[in-house]
Amino acid sequence: MRQAGRYLPEFRAIRVENDFFNVCRTPELATEVTLQPIRRYPELLDAAIIFSDILVIPQAMGMQVEMVPGKGPHLPEPLREPRDLARLTDQRKGFSVGRELDYVYKAITNTRHALAGRVPLLGFVGAPWTLMAYMVEGGGSKTFAEAKAWLFRCPQAAHELLRRIAAVAAEFLVGQVHAGAQALQVFESWAGELSPRDFAEFSLPYLRQIAAHVKQRCPDVPLTVFAKGAHYALEQLATETAFDVISIDWTIDPAAARIRVDRALRSAGSARRVVLQGNLDPTLLFADEDTLRRRTAEMCASFGATGHIANLGHGMMPAHDPERLRVFLQTVHSASRALR
Ligand SMILES: Cc1c2[nH]c(c1CCC(=O)O)Cc1[nH]c(c(CCC(=O)O)c1C)Cc1[nH]c(c(CCC(=O)O)c1C)Cc1[nH]c(c(C)c1CCC(=O)O)C2
What we know:
Its EC number is 4.1.1.37. This is Uroporphyrinogen decarboxylase in heme biosynthesis. It is built from 15 helices and nine strands. It is of the alpha/beta class. Helix 12 links the parallel strand 6 and strand 7 (245-247). Helix 3 (27-40) packs parallel to helix 6 (102-115), helix 9 runs parallel beside helix 11 and helix 14 runs parallel beside helix 15 (322-339). The structure holds coproporphyrinogen III.
């Protein structure tokens, strides 16, 4: 998450001249920025993730989205009530996911060529609840009161919006595979704002639909879900969806997550193996090197020798030192060699 980004001076240099979404919309720039971390950490990163943002879907559905430096995403005309759904363009005649988001497909194809097989390329989307939260709040929020009020006050309109976002997201993921993405991730970054009951009603069904749609069309493409803060849903994600990988944040103990997922699969009589991804607290990159090494090795050991993709539990931060990230990456490799 934000493997490319402001912690890298070479990224900041490009952003001086270019607006965030201009980078997303210009295949050469998106490729350049996607490759920056791959070049800086040769042999250490096992995948690249296409430079884009989850908010390209609200844009494709007709909403204006700006990236305000130092503040994050801003949607100047948020959806405030159910009748605002009429402003969205996804149901208008002639709307096409492929046409609206063609620039992402071009960036993916261009980046696949530029990577020349060095590492696989990941595509991604935002999940419906997380995107709805931005579309209703108009940006980030401490409480998500506006978006949650929608869920409780107008559940039908909320489901209508979530269903429409899910349809666009699912088609967009398949299009990314056709453009060259070799694995996919779905970001439900605001899952933790929902109670288990509301996650079951407003998030899980759409995650399930997206996974089913993609798995039907692209059965061999690994599919990851990151539902930040949704510890309570580990078992459901493992047994009630088709995701191959569950990415967890640092508030779940890896060994406990492994046991819970395996137990849930066994009691559901499922023979499938779910991989876990995560989960170092990104703030540990601010610790001294010895602490970072020790905690990274502990994390790898806790996940176990197999079925783990090492990652941070959330995104890189602008103040992170790129050399500390190198220490993390080197330690992941040495720790996993030792485990095997
Ligand atoms: C919620 C979310 C967003 N975007 C994303 C999520 C889900 C993951 C998560 O929970 O963080 C996902 C995302 N955003 C970005 C990527 C590109 C791929 C990568 O390198 O990881 C990915 C996978 C680029 C980005 N997206 C953003 C940046 C930094 C902005 C800049 O360059 O000005 C990058 C590199 C901006 C962004 N975009 C978003 C926010 C909240 C922000 C502000 C964050 C901040 O200011 O640190 C929405």
